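It is worth pausing here to work through a concrete case rather than discussing structure prediction in the abstract. The textbook approach is simple: state the sequence, then state the predicted structure, then interpret. We follow exactly that order.
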Amino acid sequence: MGADEKGRQPEVATAATRLHIKGFDALPEEAVAIRTAVFMSEQGFVDEFDDTDDRACHLVLFDGEQPVATLRLFAGETPGEWVVGRLAVARSHRGLGLGALTLREAEAEAARRGGGHVILHAQVRSKGFYERCGYEAYGEVDLDEGCPHTWMRKEL
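Step two, the predicted structure:
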């Protein structure tokens, strides 16, 4: 996605008229708000923001004007590898399939950028969600700020 003069990415329309996804080359305030609410306030993480945010593409799903889900996408360490991280859905919009919708758009963006597969570091409690989205776990479970995580992968 090519950015406009404000660093914002073009809008990507979804099937629902009120829902639309925007991509950003820089961490937008809408993503900060969702990630702060979900990961810091609800789940107690402290180290939510890092240098990876500076090199990632950030997707934000809007319901009308309200930002309701976000994630980041960045190139991995090997050719064709893309990494999804920090997928979060606002509490008010959970259970509606919006996490899966946002994840599918990230996968499509990775494919447009030449990606062959996507990896992510999932909270173990979310493993079933990612499996339903076509991801397979690999490697050992490890801790991120005391929370069990597992690496998962999906071929594009």
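Step three, interpretation. The chain has a mean pLDDT of 92. The first strand starts at residue 8 and ends at 13.
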